[in-house]
Amino acid sequence: MGSVVKQLTRPYLLPQEGTIKAGEWVTPDGRALPERLLDWDPATPFEAIREVAVDFERLIGECQLGLGATLAVTSEIRSDRTTLRVLGDTITVTADSSADVQSVLAVSGSALGGLVKLSTTLTLVSSGDSGPLAASRVGSELWRSHTFGCALEGGAARFPTSAVSFSKSPLLDDKGAWSLDWQIQSLDEPVLASVRLLINTDNPRVREAIITGSTAPDSEVIRSMISFDVARTLITSALRSDEFLARYESFPEGSVGRAIAELIQTHWGESPGSLAQRLSIRPNRFEAEIQARFAPVDGEA
Amino acid sequence: MSGGYLFPKLDRDRARARLEEIRALCPDGPLTQTQLVDEIQMFLPDYTFESIGGQTITEPELLKLREAAVAVATTCGFPNDHSLDARNAFDRRIGKLLHEEMGISPHQAADEDIWAHLTLGVLLDLAAWRFPDLPEARMLGRAPRSTFRRLWWRAEILGAQSWDDEDPLFEDETVQIMERTELAGVPYFARAVASAFKRTVAVNPTAKRMDLMRDALKRTYRLTPFVRLETLSPAELDEQLRDLFTESVRQLSGGAEVTDPLPLTGVSSKRSSYSLSFSPPRPSPSSAGKSEGQTGTVATASPPAADTPTHTKNGPA
Hints:
heterodimer, A: alpha+beta, Immunoglobulin-like, 6-stranded mixed sheet, 8 helices, 27% helix, disordered N terminus, B: mainly alpha, two-stranded parallel sheet, 14 helices, 3 strands, 2% strand
């Protein structure tokens, strides 16, 4: 999720840190779920398991819930390719149940693709004889785990890229090296569906740098330049967009708007509004700020 | 047509070039039906297939799909009737047809290139009838406005709610649901909203439908940061949504008497058709923690064999 999303204030008490502990995601054979599944295929089911330990007594004390409260542990997997969210089994937790539950995600691979994000929540089913500050509405979220990201299809989490012969395209200049294909109006759309880097296959140096993944210094400079150019294009366009500045905290997970907001948060750690002001007043200086953060030219001797 | 087909793809750049060629045939106005039919191709030059498992569709199969689509479009008034009713009926019926007949999974349906190929090749004349100005957003495959892509996804997410001719959701109402990814990302949730909306309208016929949908969805969205409605059982979710819609009617009517919609009956207990039965190999430490039947199960069945179709269509919520 990234720290760009504000911590929401909830109208009820939440458990303290450590009251609920989630283990790492593991595959059915007990290995840690990797951040990248290189041999994944949509015909392959996605299966992952995690242990969740709920200190029930401590939790009902911290949240002013009754002893007869019932809670639910549910895991979710969200795909940025299909934009589907698939929920796993809901496991109920009561005073009588075990403190440790096993949350399972077993999902048809055909519903997934790209980058998937896994998370687990603890929600209220019933509050029992609760206090005035306790959650009371069924479904109230009491706890949410950190999100774990896993790239399916190997390279699917890379920036969406297409190799194109610019000379065969009436819309692209033959001599161009690359072109970022996107529109500022697509801030709500998934990154994989709306942004694409077009690489000119007629340009042998660019082709070698991007398509063959050459490790030659020349290729690394080209890749660095492209990364910088992509970041600059996305960030400056977004900072000139009233819609982005108004909604940068609320774009959906996996969307272009969210990705740009996270990029800004990661590299600047300040609000887009103040960046937009600097871009507007001193565009040249802001350009240097982008260069400093995305380093198109390595300053090391 | 059975499932597991791979459809031809046309990348965005080639699709744009193809669209320009088509537009150039008649720069001053809409193309004639004859011109459009001349441009129809089952496989466009430079098409590709995705390199995943599945059976590549053949030309006769694409032709069969086209014939079925044209037959459906004809029932809606294609090619001469350009009325709103005709276009809405087309959207509902063609969405159902494509969803049932293409046999593709959400994974494939998320690929803009197959929609670009379908729109600019196989079903060009239908797309041009629906959107005579041939706007890029409709003719290419990018979400969310692509002509056929959006209809397939409506059918996938809303199921029968998307093609109900007797009690249809209007275009704006459908868009209100589909454009909210937190809602449309969980078909079970989206269908429950559509169902609660329709039942509320049925018992409050003077309510302004669009205002009601907008207001109720705002109320729903205000809850989503701290209430996980999609984790609720069908009965709990329906109760919550009926309360939200009823409150909306009350507010929009200035406090007038409101009739509560009837609870949903006969709902499926299955929350997602994407979930598979799966038995973890290790003994569960949560033997006292109960797995709720309403949300799928930590079942004892073995995982499906590798060649088992992994995508099944959702039943109505």
